[in-house]
Amino acid sequence: MEDQDFQSLIRTYHNFLSQVDMAYIRPIMDTVVWDDRLIEIKGAKGVGKTTMLLQHIKRDFVDIDDVLYVSLDNLWFKSHTIKELADYFYSQGGRYLFLDEVHYYPYWQTAIKNLHDEYSDLHIVFTGSSMLQLEAGEGDLSRRLIDYHMPGLSFREYLELENVAHLPKVSLDDVLTKHTQIALDIKDKIGNIQPYFNAYLQHGYYPFYKSIKAGFEIRLQHIVNQVLESDYPLVDNVSIATIEKTKKMLVVLAHSVPQVPTLNTLYGQLETGRNQGMKMLHALHRADLLTLLTDNTKNLKSLGRPEKIFLNNPNLMYALGTNTEIGTVRETFFVNQLMQTHNLKYPPKGDFLVDDTYLFEVGGASKTFNQIKDEPNSFLAVDNTEIGYKSRIPLYMFGLLY
């Protein structure tokens, strides 16, 4: 490869690096063990994977020429290969290669596996769609890499990004047992937290909201379309007809979640069979557009039938739904924040069972224990409540877990 071919990538890399904002660095960046030789970072489009890579390079490398960041959706890769890039970069002394959007590159898994095996001191970090699935076989990476999943902003991170308050991360056990004192401390720092919470529900999950003065919901709709029209066929090799049916499925569900689904009716609306319908449903789950809850975690792993369906986060509800019911928004927030660090199931009684131990009902300030009054380890997560009491916990408190 000629040096001039490589220089166009260097210019793009330097341009991205010069523009990255270092004002706020998400805590997840310091949980990644960057010294590992092969790292996978997955996440929904828009949650900040690219920003984290560039921030890590800018903050933690003395000589940025030891490093190269490239996005594999760059047209450069229409006439060049990852192997050509890595060979030339390594020959120039480079040892840290950051590959963004790997799902845009054909047979990316085999290509990265071969580089990892050929260059024993080359460090590779790659990012991709949350839909990515490592396939066993010739290009199997599962035994070689460390993988991370990057969610959107927690409510706690949103408060930091807004410079409202820098609150410590709390454990679920602390929320359950010490929430009154935590809430009193927050009130001393912030005052009334509810306006910030309401704003977060509408636009605070995706960090890119900070760079948009108007039209956040339209931008989020465009991202959803890009995921389904570009990422989905690249990852799952589906037809245009399947993409259109999957988009329709998402729209139908966005207007009716949460629900205990009558899936046969849904499949009939989409003119599709059960097997294809279930694959589409689980693809939307993998894309972090839907959240599927079951009464048995194994059902999700085996493409089983979900017991309840939610949109992934409240921001998607406001962007995709025409009738955003506040009770649904509250439940969606609870599911989204808890599922990042805990196991959730759909129980026979109550709204959610967490870690097979704690039973929750989610509602407004007037919510009562009537539905779970005789159940052990039962709690209410209540909105429009600054400071709780005993087993009545402010809903926003569950946004402090990560």
Describe the structure.
This protein is α/β, with parallel strands linked by helices. It folds into 2 domains: 3-150, P-loop containing nucleotide triphosphate hydrolases (Rossmann fold); 158-400, no CATH class. 42% of the residues lie in helices and 14% in strands. It contains 14 helices and 12 strands. It has helices at residues 3-19, 49-60, 82-91, 108-118, 155-161, 172-190, 194-203, 216-236, 240-254, 263-270, 274-286, 297-301, 314-320, 326-338; strands spanning 38-43, 67-71, 96-100, 123-129, 146-150, 290-293, 308-311, 344-345, 352-354, 358-363, 378-382, 392-394. The strands form 3 sheets. Strands 2-3-4-1-5 form a 5-stranded parallel beta sheet. The chain has a 5-stranded mixed beta sheet with strand order 8-9-10-11-12, with helices on one face. α7 crosses α13 (314-320), α8 packs across α13 and α9 crosses α11 (274-286). The radius of gyration is 22 Å and the shape is globular. The two termini are 45 Å apart. The model has no long low-confidence stretch (mean pLDDT 93).
Please give a quick description of this structure.
This protein is of the alpha/beta class and 402 residues long. Helices cover 42% and strands 14% of the residues. The protein has two domains: 3-150, 3-Layer(aba) Sandwich (Rossmann fold); 158-400, no CATH class.
